[in-house]
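Hi U.,

Before I forget, here's the chain from the pilot set. I'm dumping it here mostly so it's searchable later in email.
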Amino acid sequence: MLSFGDKLEFGPKLFMFLRFWADNENFLDWVREAWNDMDGTRKRITIDSDSYAVRKSSLRRRNGTRKRIRIDSDSYAVRKSSLRRRNGTRKRIRIDSNSYAVRKSSLRRRNESTLKSWLEENTDNWSKTYKGWGANRPSHSACKLIKAIIMSVSDFHAYRRRIHGSLKFKENYLLRKDLEGNFIVKLVHKAVDGDISTKTQKGDIEDMLSIIFDTILADVPQRDYAHDLKCLRDLIGKCDGSVSDWLHIIKHPSLWNYKKRVDFIFRLHTLLENDPVGPYIRSELKKMDRILGDWRKLLPSDGPLHNFLHTHDAGMYPKYGKTASEHLRFFRNFLSHYGKYYCDSLKQRRCCYASDWNEMYVEFLLSEICTNFVVKLFEMVMADTKLRRNALS
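Structure:
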């Protein structure tokens, strides 16, 4: 709105208001007294109490910037160096003035728990999705926890930076999560038995094996485990503490989720197809041919897998042979093209199982053709340094 005419006086400008002034029980009386004494000129309201003393110099604007407000009281004194929330309360952080290094003791996380308390909250550590498909595989969180426990024990025996109690006690595993949601396990000394002085690496491995398969995965008999999980149990039982053994266990496919399995198949197929295969890989593939046999005979006589095999054999693509490399090619091609050939048609026909046809279910179907196929491929990759670096990166 524009106004033409003499300059009008609209009274004094609005003053600054801080919300915490109103917390004082005498605030309204001060405002009422100040407004009653107004004579048309600007007045300064001075607040001076034991709990909220706001100084004139701290509210002054200079060069267009707001100066620091110093608040000095027992209940409202907030300093930058003393703001830290821990368990819902504010704690002091001690900062070294030379390097602004925050001391380790003040940054310790309070979301740590023992394996015992975690197991009380997580009673079923098996994937419900795979159970619905008739397979027993650990849940994603259980796989992360098992991998973290294995890494913690291997690191302890590699560096020996601390001591820990007997690993057969759940209280001696301290858990917390990093920013990405992965477990970090620390071996502590909360529960002790009489044989702690005689504990060896072999004894720790046996206790860890018991914790994983008799405690975390106790709900399912070991004879009903998936094949890759049985292989992991055997690997841990035979571990002699060497670096190669620990690496083999930590990277084992039984602890992968379906996305990593799919990525492994794609990477390995690309590497074997584009790079020249060395004599070792050729010999390993021939061994797999003898062990696995003709994988085509393992396909169900009817269903998408069987139809896909014969559709490709009758089309413009090369026919699938019975070798392990051809099995890998079939695995990769079905993962790439199942959506185009099957998912859309199943939804159009409104099949009751159309909702199950996602990448997770397809990976499961392909793995069930030959349960030890992925494990054999993994063992072949782990024995070749270059292949391991490119396929498992």
